[in-house]
Amino acid sequence: MSAGTGSIRRDWQLTLPLGLFFLVFVFVPLALLGVVSLYTTSDLKGMGLTQYVKFLGDGFNLGVLGLTLWLALKTTVVAILIGYPLAYLYTLAPRTLQRVLILVIVLPLLTSAVVRTFAWVVILGRQGIINEVLLGIGLIAAPLKLLYTPGAVVVALAQIEMPLMVLPIITALANIDPNLRQASEALGAGKWRTFFEVTLPLSMPGLLAGSLLVFAAAASAFVTQTLVGGGQQMFMPFYIYQQAIQANNYPFAATIAMILLVSVLVVVTLMNLIGRRSKGFVHA
Amino acid sequence: MPESARAIESTASRVERWTFYGVFGVLGAIAVVLLIAPTVVVIITSFTNGFSLKFPPQGYSLRWYAALWNESPEILNAALLSMQVAALATAISVLLGVAAAMALARRRDAWARVLDSIFMSPLMLPTLALGLALLVLFNLTGQGLSMTTLVIGHIAITTPYILRTTSASLVQMDAAMIESARSLGASAWFTFRTVTLPLIVPGVAAGAFIAFMASFDNVAISLFLSDARSEMLPIRLWHIIEANLDVRAAAVSGVLVAATIVLGVVMERLAGISRHMR
Amino acid sequence: MSTPPTSSRTAGVGVTLDQVLHRYGNTEAVRDVQLAIAPGELIALLGPSGCGKTTLLRIIAGLLRQTEGHVSIGGDMVDALPPNERGAGIVFQNYALFPHMNVRANVGYGLRARGADRATIEATVDRMLALVRMEAFGARYPRELSGGQQQRVALARTLAVSPKVLLLDEPFGALDKNLRLDMQIEVKRLQRELNITTIMVTHDQEEALSMADRIAVMNQGRVEQFGTPEDIYDVPRTLFVATFVGTANLLKGRLVGGTRVELPSGGALPLPAGSTTIRDGAVTVAARPEHFRFAQPGDAGVPATVRMILPLGPSVVYELELADGTPLKLTTERGAQAGRHQPGTAVKLAVNAGAPLTVFAQ
């Protein structure tokens, strides 16, 4: 059963059922999506790159793409800024506290994203807790418009996807030999230098893995984008939905989907490559 | 010890230590509050006696839970359908995922790594694109949308979770155990039933639980693959929140949050889900 | 602190531990430790795993804050100092080399942390690599080095910041047997050359006996005995020290007149005059295997039976049994007596003249 013993393993056949499923229900459909995106008109006539030219030649469309990737990037940065310290504190915490903290981190991930988005709608609403508190202490005279702003989407998404960031970082931090940090301090380095020169570089694989997950999730977070972002800001996932279901323009919807797919794939692959390089020296 | 002078930590070192733990402590505390607060807000809001989502509520009652139970068959039906789809998709994913993990977990060949990445890709790719792609497929083949198409779509996104947790359990398992079982004369299938399976059951269970929750929560796939008659709970909820912010949404959320916490804690005890999610 | 010394040789500072006690929860990992270590001395903390020796080392390094008591380095009480300001350099058991930095960056790390200028860092790194004979490996990464090479780099990295005290945690535990002896000689050479006060944690008694100026034998958090290797070996002060360091036969008997111990199985063991102050009565005698010899036929002696013979290179170990079933080991040089006693033979044992047997009251 073990690899590398030289025995003949026939158990590769066990991948066949799932492989077949992926072939028929993931690969073929995605290929079809690519084909559909090449139709010239919405009633599926003529072939060519018309849809791509239309998308890439239009400022509005490029704006939607840019806004989506920019949103995913901002979300990732915010998730790192608050998620990393949480992961770090988790590794320092005593075991009993760790047991509570891990539930605090994991349970939101298991809770429906629609519910978590709804929570942000309640919090940020005109009668939400933030406005009530600000009104109560007299800081503002009328409720602020918090919902349907770009900032709100970033904060809500960063919160919703944060566990995806925290968990891989915890794993990476737990894999760092604690002696390395102590060696750094015993050699005269303070806390910050030890963090930036030893802990952070060695936790890079986890940080990148988390960033990858958060970026991909934020770029395609249809529900949060539409509910917290509202109608004013258009992001790629809603654009796909709108073109396919509401406008019935399948070729254009397919084009948007392909472009989103490729964009995310490019970013994810890049991060993966960097991640593999950083893993090289971390796991000696 | 009179002959010893008491050495004092330098100010720079002290400042560095305080700023370090200060910054990490404050950011970590913000993170914890952010993780907990929304859930708490939803639960409190669901007990309001008013007609709006004002927070904190004016008064408290169970009226919205009563409304949910008594006057909302469409929501309850959506929940039932979501559970059916999630259960079916999870069950099939377990079969597909465990089998594939058995073959892939301990292999380091390039093809196995590539195949593994492919099977894991739905976690990374925009699932909305996959939903649209499947819709195109089913339209082209002339197959109408049905429960089957929904389940198929969900299997694609639930299998990665099971593959991941099962593979992790298999990797942790001592390979010598299987070898010694085989050398004692056990067949491959007997070894799997008596040695491998009992040891990986927590991993499979954790994966199945996470997969079920992911399916139950899915919007992107269901949006394209459910027919007009069958509406899934998250989509129903999405419509309610988008359209009129009906307070019943808070009651539904309250039920979902409570169920998730109870199931999550139980599964953590039984299968250690947090270990399998890292 | 940022300028390295022009000469490698340091003045050496003393280290004092004053009533140090450490608790993990309810268990006392270290208790009542009182040690005064002289400048330039090499000390071994020797004991079985879990005896508190590593905890004590970490307390000296400042990686752990003791529950009670004080640590002084060079006359300064350093209890309030974090590890980066103590001037104690520690080499970890697994070396803890930074895997993402090459050898030069590892060795220069401490000086960079102190804000030393580039030229100083480069010069010190060169000097340190020369000191541990690793000049050719500056650009390598830790994973590209053998265990012994990693240890040299770890030593160089610690010594580069000119610590007042050098702390070594099981320094040779990860090396195979042949390499271990080489590195022991190497470390001893460096320690002598630099005259740096060194505290070494080990569970290997041979290592402690061969390297240390003085040994602190630890058991269950306490220092059982602190003395020179000869003292520890020849005059163990407790039964634990007698059995943990070297091999000891423990024989129960009655002390008579303060000069000899009568064994229940017959025969008696003579003690050197004035070697004990214990009152007559039931005692346990600790005797090393090399303290015994086979008595000449017809002489008086302790009757025993040969059970097994183990030739160990230059010496031969005899497993014997006294008449009452007590097991006993005897070592002789190979040659003269080899093959004279077959298993099952009845023999008589005598104690070598002047052998420092130790007696403990029961």
Number of helices of chain B: 12
- Number of beta-strand segments of chain C: 20
H/E series of chain B: EHHHHHHHHHHHH
Content of β-strand of chain C: 25-35%
Q: Globular, elongated, flat, extended or rod-shaped: what is the shape of chain C?
A: elongated
Write up what this structure looks like:
With 284 residues, chain A is an all-alpha fold. Chain A has 13 helices and no strands. Chain A is globular. Chain A starts with 15 loop residues before the first helix and ends with a helix. The model of chain B has no long low-confidence stretch (mean pLDDT 88). Chain B contains twelve helices and one strand, in the order E-H-H-H-H-H-H-H-H-H-H-H-H. The radius of gyration of chain B is 25 Å and the shape is flat. Chain C is of the alpha+beta class and 362 residues long. Chain C has a six-stranded mixed beta sheet with strand order 6-7-8-3-9-10, with helices on both faces. In chain C, strands 13-12-11-14-20 form a five-stranded antiparallel beta sheet. In chain C, strand 1 (15-24) and strand 2 (27-37) form a beta hairpin. In chain C, helix 2 crosses helix 3 and helix 3 (118-131) packs across helix 4. The radius of gyration of chain C is 25 Å and the shape is elongated. Chains in contact: A-B, A-C, B-C. Chains A and B meet through helix 1, helix 3, helix 4, helix 5 and helix 7 of A and helix 1, helix 3, helix 4, helix 5 and helix 6 of B.
Features:
heterotrimer, B: 278 residues, mainly alpha, 12 helices, flat, C: 362 residues, alpha+beta, six-stranded mixed sheet, five-stranded antiparallel sheet, 23% helix, disordered N terminus
Layout: helices, strands, pairs:
The complex is a heterotrimer of chains A (284), B (278) and C (362).
Chain A: H1 16-36, H2 50-56, H3 59-92, H4 95-110, H5 113-124, H6 129-136, H7 150-174, H8 178-186, H9 191-202, H10 204-219, H11 222-229, H12 236-246, H13 250-282
Helix pairs in contact in A: 3-7, 3-10, 4-7, 5-7, 5-11, 7-10, 7-11, 8-9, 10-13, 12-13
Chain B: E1 5-6, H1 11-46, H2 63-71, H3 73-104, H4 110-120, H5 127-140, H6 147-172, H7 175-183, H8 188-217, H9 220-225, H10 233-243, H11 248-271, H12 273-277
Chain C: E1 15-24, E2 27-37, E3 42-46, H1 53-61, E4 68-73, E5 76-77, E6 88-91, H2 103-113, H3 118-131, H4 147-159, E7 165-169, H5 177-194, E8 197-202, H6 205-211, E9 214-219, E10 222-227, H7 229-234, H8 239-244, E11 249-256, E12 260-262, E13 268-270, E14 281-287, E15 292-294, E16 302-312, E17 315-322, E18 327-333, E19 346-351, E20 358-361
Parallel strand pairs in C: 3-8, 3-9, 6-7, 7-8
Antiparallel strand pairs in C: 1-2, 1-4, 4-5, 9-10, 11-12, 11-14, 12-13, 14-20, 15-19, 16-17, 16-19, 17-18
Helix pairs in contact in C: 2-3, 2-4, 3-4
